[in-house]
Design a protein that fits this description.
By secondary structure, this protein is an alpha+beta fold. It has one domain. It has five helices and five strands. It has a five-stranded antiparallel beta sheet. Strand 2 and strand 3 form a beta hairpin. 26% of the residues are buried.
Length: 160
Amino acid sequence: MRPLDDAQIRASFANVSVRERKNIVLPDLDAIDWDRIDYLGWRDPKLPRVGYVVAWIDDGPIGLLMSQTEASPRSRTQCSWCQDVKLPNDVVLFSTKRAGAAGRRGDTIATYVCDAFQCNENVRKKPPMAYIGFDVEAAREGRIVALQVNVEGFLRDATS
């Protein structure tokens, strides 16, 4: 992912008000290894059920404010973005207002995502050897590409 600064991140949010945009608590951008992430995701330290996601789509970043739903899954759920079947973390349901007039009318979409947005780390772990001759590196690259496609699809859906 291309590096972003505070102003770019704040300006990227498509489904927030001006007041919400000003109140976003940003992560420590200097601590982020931009070469090892496909999207920037973090939880709000002041609002435990709120998360933020920013990714490059076409020529610029697009961001969404997301809210963790109150309900918890009854069984182990797979993350819709990284699709890791051996997750070391929990998966929760996040909903988000659509951008524009649809969001102002209350239209939302939701998806299951790793609780602290650990997808970038999960897809970069070596997958287990599935069979003799299995190309582990190709499988890892495939998972990274799938993550990019899944996040982009969700962001496009929320902003269209």
